[in-house]
Amino acid sequence: MKNSTIPAIALLICLFASHTHAATPAGRVAFGLDMPFMRYIGTTIGQGSTDVEIDTFQIGLAGMDVGLWGGFTVIDHLTIGTRLALAFDRTEEVKFETKTFDMILFPFAEYAFDLGMVSPFVSAGLGLEVSTVASGDSPTTTVKTTQFLFGAGGGVHIFLIDALSIDASILLNGGAGGGEVEVSGNNMSSTTDLDARSFQLQVLVGISGWI
User: Fold this and answer.
1) Residue 47 burial by Cβ neighbours in a 10 Å radius (0-12, 13-18, 19+)
2) Closest listed residue to residue 104, CA positions, set 122, 64, 131, 142
3) How far apart are CA 114 and CA 117, in angstroms?
4) Half-sphere exposure of residue 143: CA atoms within 13 angstroms, side-chain side
5) Do residues 89 and 99 touch, judged by C-beta distance below 8 A?
6) Residue 98 pLDDT exceeds 90
């Protein structure tokens, strides 16, 4: 029994080793889809002493909140890419409607540590965020902001097969920029400039294809 067990173990080791080649060699094209499983955003808007702080927290997957990314492995382990994130939300309470739209374009660099089927990675990048929040009806208050983002993160690609991985990552982003508050309706209209700053913490889950 012992004699038959040793060859079986050796065979399993060989089979595993044959699938533990580098997952991110130079020349690979990658593309993926992800969604936030957990997210905290702290935003400060206003001017000087009139600053208003807004904290939002989300846990669980949201249907209208998705990220798409693509990249190219320029050298072994190093992928350069861009992530586009889009989010839309609509809420209504006692005929008071709020609509939110957010778009982030985030070029990044990612370095992966290939450990066979598992590839931990670290990443960093710079990007741009454009958001709009409209609330109320006659008058309607619309807050528009544009922020430059900088951030870093880390995570893991788990390769189910050579061309497919499931992913989990944590992203930390800071942002700074400006925008305006527009109030319109009931024969009135006004626009006020504002400053904007933000901090974002996200836990993302997703799936990626590798060619």
Assistant:
1) exposed
2) 131
3) 8
4) 17
5) yes
6) no
Under CATH, which number does the domain 2-210 receive?
A: 2.40.160.20
List alpha helices for the chain, DSSP H. 2-17
Tens of pLDDT, residues 6-56 = 555 444 444 444 444 457 899 999 999 999 999 999 999 887 677 888 888
Backbone torsions φ then ψ of 186, nearest 5 degrees:
55, 40
How many CB atoms neighbour CB 162 within 10 A? 12
Structure-token pair, residue 182: 């527009």
- Any idea where the domains of the chain sit in the sequence? 2-210
Lookup: tokens for 10: 């050796």
For the chain, the 3-state helix, strand and coil shares in percent, each to the nearest 5, are 10, 75, 15
Which strand (E) or helix (H) includes residue 5? Answer: helix 2-17
Each residue's pLDDT tens digit, 62-83: 667 899 999 999 999 999 999 9
pTM: 0.83
The whole-angstrom separation of Cα 173 and Cα 175 is: 7
Query: Taking 60 as the threshold, does the pLDDT of residue 95 lie above it?
Result: yes
Q: How far apart are CA 130 and CA 103, in angstroms?
A: 5
Residues facing residue 94 across a β-bridge: none
